[in-house]
Design brief:
The protein has ten helices and six strands, in the order βααβαααβααβααββα. The chain has 237 residues and is of the alpha/beta class. The chain starts with 6 loop residues before the first strand and ends in a 7-residue tail after the last helix. The model has no long low-confidence stretch (mean pLDDT 94).
């Protein structure tokens, strides 16, 4: 492929619907979905996709779902990141792990410790970025950026507020613009949520699938990239 996206964001919708179709509680879908993340990461490395981002959970996911489901999500996160820190691909490929969002406000200490551990371990890696949006909202991110810029402006009234200053104050300041967004399980209801990465997705290509995330295979991941490869990006021109 000649025109590879350099930053792909995946919104992994459909875990709960996948479980419901099988007469299972939601956590079965979350467990199966977690397996797909590892497979997609391997495929992204194979294709040399430099930046891969997953929107793992929103604030609403943690505050508006049953306590039983949230507790299980927290358990899955802990297990996943422990295994991720032990994967040899992380060190071999110099993959920097980023965790963006308000997770420190909502996660228990044990999970926060696990996340901080892998962030610290990979902080000096710079060949690839693997980013997880956790307790994340694009509205929160932009509000936070505006608040920081307001303080900067108050301290230096002559400073120019431009694109560079805005980007420098986003949680995603170290990530490039998003080229391709894949939202699974939403072809019949293509929609956006919570202003996700609203600054970085200004010129993104969108790819919606019928496939629910637990069934989203590396083959379909490659299909999405192939469609991107064949699409002319006008970027508003």
């Amino acid at each position: 492929m000649q025109n590879l996206p350099q930053h792909i964001v995946i919104i992994p919708d459909g875990n709960r619907r996948w479980a419901k179709k099988r007469g299972k509680p939601p956590f079965f879908g979350h467990m199966e979905g977690a397996k797909r993340i590892g497979e997609i990461l391997e495929t992204a490395l194979e294709l040399q996709i430099k930046n891969l981002t997953f929107w793992t959970c929103s604030v609403d996911n943690l505050t508006k779902r049953s306590s039983k489901e949230v507790q299980f999500l927290i358990k899955i996160f802990g297990q996943y990141f422990k295994k991720l820190s032990e994967r040899k691909e992380i060190d071999e490929n110099k993959i920097k792990i980023n965790v963006l969002g308000r997770w420190e406000e909502f996660f228990p200490e044990k999970l926060k410790k696990e996340l901080k551990k892998i962030i610290k371990k990979t902080e000096n890696y710079n060949d690839y970025n693997l980013t997880f949006l956790m307790a994340y909202s694009g509205t929160d991110e932009m509000t936070n950026a505006i608040q920081k810029i307001a303080k900067i402006k108050n301290q230096n009234t002559k400073i120019k507020i431009d694109e560079k200053l805005i980007k420098a104050n986003l949680w995603t300041k170290d990530l490039p613009p998003v080229d391709l967004i894949i939202r699974t399980g939403s072809v019949d209801d293509p929609h956006w949520s919570s202003g996700m990465m609203m600054w970085d997705v200004a010129d993104s290509q969108l790819y919606f699938t019928k496939t629910l995330f637990p069934d989203f295979s590396p083959v379909e991941f490659k299909k999405a990239i192939e469609q991107y490869n064949q699409t002319e990006r006008r970027k508003g021109a």
